[in-house]
Amino acid sequence: MSAAEILAALCTAIDERRWDDLAPMLAEDFVCRYVHTGEQFDRDGWVRLNAEYPGFDHLTVEDLVDGGDRAVARCHVTGRDGEGLAHFEVATFVHARGSVLAEMTEVWTDAGQPVPQESRPS
Questions:
Q1: For residues 28 and 14, what is the distance between their CA atoms, to the nearest angstrom?
Q2: Ramachandran angles phi, psi of 82, nearest 5°
Q3: Which residue in 38, 39, 54, 80 could disulfide with 34, CB within 3.0 to 4.6 Å?
Q4: What was the pLDDT predicted at 81?
Q5: Backbone angles phi, psi at 120, to 5 degrees
Q6: Along the 122 residues of the chain, how does pLDDT read in single tens digits?
Q7: pTM recorded for the entire structure
Q8: DSSP state, residue 115
């Protein structure tokens, strides 16, 4: 099974809220890094984070790149907060070892944020 196939199955399980299906797709020494916050999670911590995330609504895979034992997914995630439906984009980079994911790096951002004016060319 390629990293992309495992990642696609993981994303589907998250969207369908099948939390008990996540851990078997991850190596015992799995590690996930959040580049945007500097946080790092082990397998149980990452599964718990997803299962207990407040307001989770939906995850859609927008793009999936298969690199054999490495894969990348770009996903759109929605969640409910006090103001309604919030939209997020996430890039997920994974490395598989055999039939499980051993490493994951995620980069999250709010969708629809304007580019700061000072960063635009004149």
A1: 19
A2: -60, -20
A3: 39
A4: 82
A5: -85, 140
A6: 899 999 999 999 999 999 999 999 999 999 999 998 999 999 999 999 999 998 999 999 999 999 999 999 999 999 998 888 889 999 999 999 999 999 999 998 866 656 566 655 55
A7: 0.87
A8: P
pLDDT at 114: 60
Query: Range of 10's domain?
Result: 3-111
Cα 19 to the center of its chain, rounded Å: 14
117 domain-assigned: no
- Domains in the chain, number: 1
Q: Hey, what are 15's tokens?
A: 């969207």
Q: Rounded to the nearest 5°, which phi and psi values hold at 11?
A: -65, -40
Residue 19 lies in a domain: yes
Q: Report if residue 116 sits inside a domain.
A: no
Domain of 21: which CATH number?
3.10.450.50
Q: How far apart are CA 115 and CA 98, in angstroms?
A: 40
